[in-house]
C-alpha cells in the first residue's frame, strides 16, 4: 500500500472586531506536522488566515517545508516570472464573493464541487482531490448580465493547460423557460502527469524532479565517456542502450486534446419542480491501439427528460439517459484529475479519452437524492444504471447484456446525538463499472471519512482519511490504494 500521511496540530483563533474597519471577523489556523513530497518526508509549518471582508472572503495558505537537509525552497521560488507567479498563486487557498444563485458569485482557489448547467459534461468536479501534495488554483464564476446567465470554470491557473476549462451561457426566452449552451475543453490531457519543476518531464520519468535544468544524468556520463574514449563520438548510441538514459521522449508524447459541447432547455414549473432536457457531445479522437471499431470519433449523450424537485427534507433529481458509443455522462467528474492520464507501464500512458471505446450504446436512468432524516442523518445518494453494449477485449467486439453503473454516496451523522463527537461523515463513489457494490477498486474509486472528537471544552481532534487508487505497474489491471491521512487539533477561543 502507498500512503501519504499528513500529521497536523492546528490552532484556530477568532475574535470579534468592533473597531471601525471593513473586516467583520477573522480566523487563523496554524499547523505543524509532516508531509511527503517527491518521496521525501518534510516537517511542515503553516498558517491559514481566513478573512471575511463584507461579501469577499479571503483564505491564505502560507507554509514552509524543511528537513535535516534544509528548507524545501521550491514552494518559494522567485527565480523568474513563471516560478514567482506559481509561488504567489500557491499561497491563496480561496477568494470568494457572494454565494451561488447571486447575480455575481465567484470562487477562486480550492473548488470542492462544481457543476456546469445540468451536469451532462461537468458534474461535481473538484480540483482538491490531491491536496495538499498538489495545490491547484481554480476559478468558478456565475453572473447575470442584462438577463444573460454566464458561468466560467477553470480548474487551475497555475497550469497553461488546465484539466477543465468551461464556458456556459443561458437566457430566459420566457419567464419560466430558459435555454443554455456550454463548451468544455482539456487542451492537453498529458499535462495531468505531475511535473514539479515545470521542465515538461513528468516526475515519474524525471531523474531530477525538482531541478528544471536536468531530467537525466547524460552530462555526468558524457564526461566519463570522454575521459575513457577521448571524444564524444559514439556517446549517443552507447547512452541510448546503457540503461542510464531517460526513456521518456517529449517528441513522442504529443498533446492530446478533448472537448465537449452541450445544449439544454429548462422549464421551471414552480420553486419546487423543474423539468429539463440536455444534449452533449464529446469532441476528439480515440488513439488507443486496441480499438478496432469502425468509428474512432467520440460520441454523444441525450437526456430527453430530467426533473428536479423537493418535498420537505427530500431533494430529488432524476434523468432518463441515452448514449452512443464512446460517450460518458459527467465526463469531467470528481475523479477526473486522478485519471485524466494514467501510467500503465514504463512506456505506456493512457488518457481517460483513450478508454472511451469500452463504452457502447447505452440507455437507462440516473437518480440523485439528498435527504435529512429526522435531524439524525443527512444522506446523499447518486445512482446510474444503463444497459446496452460493452467492449469485449478478448474478442475485440461489442457485446450486449452488461450494465454500466455509477454509485455516489455520502452520509453524515448529527454530531449533537453522540457525546463528544463534533463531526462524523463518510463517502464512497465508483463510476462506470458493471457493479459498484462489489467494491472492486479502480481509478474512479474514492472513499473516506471525517471524524471530529471533542477532547475538552473548545478543543476538537479531527481525523480525515481519503483513499484513491492508481494503476499497479507491476500487475497490469490491478490498482494500488493511495491513502491521505490528516489529523488536526482545533482550539476555538
Detailed description of the structure:
There is one protein chain. This protein has 493 residues and is mainly beta. It has two domains: 98-188 and 255-491, Porin (Beta Barrel); 201-233, no CATH class. Helices cover 6% and strands 52% of the residues. The protein contains four helices and 25 strands. The chain has helices spanning 81-90, 218-229, 235-240, 336-339; strands at 2-16, 25-37, 40-53, 56-60, 62-67, 70-71, 92-97, 104-109, 138-145, 148-154, 165-174, 177-186, 258-270, 273-283, 300-311, 314-323, 341-345, 348-351, 359-373, 377-392, 397-413, 421-433, 446-456, 459-471, 479-491. The protein has a 21-stranded mixed β-barrel. The protein has a two-stranded antiparallel ribbon with strand order 17-18. Strand 24 (459-471) and strand 25 form a beta hairpin.
Major sheet characteristics = 21 strands, mixed, barrel
Strand content: over 45%
Q: CATH topology of the largest domain, what is it called?
A: Porin
- The Rg value, from CA coordinates, equals 25 Å
User: What order do the SSEs take from the amino end to the carboxyl end, as H and E?
Assistant: EEEEEEHEEEEEEHHEEEEHEEEEEEEEE
Tally of helical segments: 4
Termini separation:
39 Å
Helix content: under 10%
Shape designation: globular
Q: Give the C-level CATH assignment of the largest domain.
A: Mainly Beta
Domain module tally = 2
The overall pLDDT average reads: 82
Q: What would CATH call the architecture of the largest domain? A: Beta Barrel
Low-confidence stretches: 1-26, 289-295
Compute the number of strand runs.
25
The secondary-structure class comes to mainly beta
Amino acid at each position: 500500500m502507498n500512503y501519504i500521511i499528513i500529521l497536523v496540530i492546528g490552532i484556530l483563533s477568532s475574535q470579534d472586531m468592533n473597531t471601525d474597519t471593513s473586516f467583520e471577523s477573522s480566523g487563523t489556523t496554524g499547523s505543524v506536522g509532516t508531509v511527503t513530497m517527491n518521496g521525501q518526508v518534510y516537517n511542515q509549518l503553516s498558517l491559514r488566515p481566513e478573512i471575511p471582508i463584507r461579501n469577499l472572503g479571503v483564505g491564505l495558505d502560507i507554509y514552509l517545508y524543511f528537513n535535516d537537509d534544509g528548507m524545501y525552497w521550491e514552494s518559494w521560488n522567485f527565480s523568474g516570472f513563471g516560478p514567482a507567479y506559481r509561488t504567489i498563486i500557491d499561497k491563496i487557498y480561496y477568494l470568494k464573493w457572494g454565494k451561488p444563485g447571486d447575480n455575481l458569485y465567484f470562487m477562486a482557489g480550492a473548488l470542492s464541487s462544481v457543476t456546469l448547467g445540468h451536469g451532462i459534461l461537468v458534474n461535481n468536479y473538484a480540483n482538491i482531490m490531491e491536496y495538499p501534495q498538489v495545490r491547484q488554483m481554480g476559478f468558478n464564476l456565475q453572473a447575470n448580465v442584462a438577463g444573460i446567465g454566464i458561468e466560467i470554470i477553470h480548474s487551475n491557473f497555475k497550469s497553461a493547460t488546465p484539466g477543465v476549462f468551461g464556458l456556459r451561457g443561458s437566457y430566459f426566452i420566457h419567464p419560466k423557460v430558459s435555454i443554455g449552451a456550454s463548451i468544455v475543453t482539456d487542451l492537453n490531457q498529458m499535462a495531468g502527469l505531475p511535473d514539479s519543476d515545470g521542465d515538461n518531464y513528468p516526475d515519474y520519468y524525471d531523474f531530477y524532479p525538482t531541478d528544471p535544468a536536468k531530467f537525466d544524468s547524460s552530462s555526468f556520463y558524457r564526461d566519463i565517456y570522454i575521459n575513457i574514449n577521448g571524444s564524444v563520438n559514439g556517446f549517443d548510441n552507447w547512452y541510448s542502450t546503457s540503461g542510464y538514459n531517460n526513456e521518456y521522449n517529449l517528441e513522442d508524447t504529443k498533446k492530446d486534446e478533448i472537448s465537449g459541447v452541450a445544449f439544454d432547455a429548462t422549464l421551471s414549473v414552480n420553486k419546487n419542480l423543474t423539468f429539463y432536457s440536455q444534449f452533449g457531445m464529446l469532441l476528439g479522437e480515440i488513439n488507443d491501439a486496441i480499438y478496432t471499431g469502425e468509428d474512432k470519433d467520440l460520441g454523444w449523450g441525450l437526456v430527453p427528460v430530467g426533473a428536479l424537485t423537493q418535498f420537505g427534507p427530500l431533494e430529488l433529481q432524476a434523468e432518463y439517459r441515452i448514449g452512443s458509443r464512446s460517450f460518458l455522462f459527467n465526463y469531467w467528474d470528481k475523479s477526473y484529475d486522478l485519471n485524466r492520464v494514467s501510467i500503465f507501464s514504463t512506456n505506456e500512458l493512457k488518457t481517460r479519452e483513450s478508454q472511451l471505446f469500452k463504452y457502447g450504446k447505452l440507455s437507462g436512468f440516473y437518480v440523485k437524492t439528498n435527504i435529512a432524516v429526522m435531524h439524525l442523518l443527512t444522506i446523499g445518494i447518486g445512482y446510474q444504471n444503463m444497459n446496452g453494449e460493452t467492449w469485449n477485449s478478448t474478442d475485440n467486439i461489442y457485446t450486449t447484456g452488461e450494465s454500466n453503473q455509477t454509485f455516489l454516496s455520502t452520509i453524515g451523522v448529527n454530531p449533537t446525538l453522540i457525546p463528544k463527537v463534533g463531526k462524523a461523515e463518510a463517502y464512497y463513489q465508483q463510476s462506470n463499472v458493471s457493479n459498484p457494490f462489489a467494491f472492486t477498486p479502480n481509478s474512479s474509486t474514492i472513499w473516506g471519512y471525517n471524524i471530529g472528537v471533542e477532547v475538552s471544552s473548545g478543543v476538537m481532534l479531527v481525523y480525515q482519511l481519503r483513499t484513491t487508487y492508481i494503476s499497479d505497474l507491476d500487475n497490469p489491471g490491478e490498482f494500488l490504494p493511495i491513502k491521505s491521512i490528516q489529523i488536526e487539533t482545533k482550539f476555538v477561543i
